[in-house]
Amino acid sequence: MTETSQRSRPLRVLAAMSGGVDSAVAAARAVEAGHDVTGVHLALSANPQSFRTGARGCCTIEDSRDARRAADVIGIPFYVWDLAERFREDVVEDFVAEYEAGRTPNPCLRCNEKIKFAALLDKALALGFDAVCTGHYAQVILREDGTRELHRASDMAKDQSYVLGVLDEKQLAHAMFPLGDTVTTKEEIRAEAERRGLAVAKKPDSHDICFIADGDTQGFLARRLGRAEGDIVDESGTKVGSHEGAYGFTIGQRKGLRIGTPAPDGKPRYVLDISPVDNTVTVGPAASLDVSALTAIKPRWCGTAPSGPGTYTAQLRAHGGETEVTAELVDGTLEVSFAAPVRGVAPGQAIVLYDGTRVVGSATIATTVRATTARRLNV
Length: 379
What we know:
CATH class of the largest domain: Alpha Beta
Largest sheet: 6 strands, antiparallel, barrel
Strand content: 25-35%
CATH topology of the largest domain: Rossmann fold
Order of helices and strands: HEHEHEHHEEEHEHHEEEEEEEEEEE
Number of helices: 8
Distance between the termini: 42 Å
CATH superfamily of the largest domain: HUPs
Helix content: 10-25%
Shape: globular
Strand order of the largest sheet: 12-15-14-13-16-17
Structural class: alpha/beta
């Protein structure tokens, strides 16, 4: 049974309202389900801009005002909580440090782990709330033995369970996702918002990284880390170009390499490796991106940790597909082998394991093994 169908008594619910349509409809549905709901907008920027840039960014003054207007229409109390310093330390600084170390982080996972379901949930529980409600598309399912599981949303096209794979069972016990168990299109969610009189019905979704409103990640990192010129080399170690900062590249990147020397076969080259130690970026053919295995650290389990090797499906990025893997936890490190080689796998990314629709857990990729050379890349 789903979380919404099994909660028989009204709960005190804190609804995280970003100022967007999903969180507004989620809060409205929680009220409609009979819960005592209070809205809260998280102020995550010390210097919020007045207006977002199109569909980029969030947490602006405009967003907080939109959230307040939605709460007024729904008829619930509303507050703004300042978590800017916590967000800066746990999400923004972590993001910069990971890129500086040659890894590719996912700040949305870190925000869900450290802010929405750690800082926010801890504060909510301390104030006597029973649950935190968000507009994520995922499902919490209660088992007969009283434990809870995180599952994909009913609509795979909108599923966001990947960025929630860091939640443990204790956090799931206090999580509410009212949008996850309904098969509706985004257009239908917007139509529902309009029927409810919510002005955010036509507001564009937020994309990219919320704290980089202009979408220029490389520029953001350059301002934080400064320019650091280095070499771009091929797999033999021959210099084929130069760069102004290895942090500006990600594994699998093709565009923006600015390599003057063409490849011997005339085909495009891709970023294969990023070495912060010698500030070198290695490029090569697409086939060299194939990865057959990886190790991942800092595992977080949505329930009991698996024992022994198992067969699962894995998702490697927020909007990626599933791939079949075998995985085993060995001395705290997750060892994963792919049934077929995959591309674009980068240290720092999260791998989320699934058993059917159930989220087993998440871990941070530490090393990868190339299918073509069986050479382990460790950043």
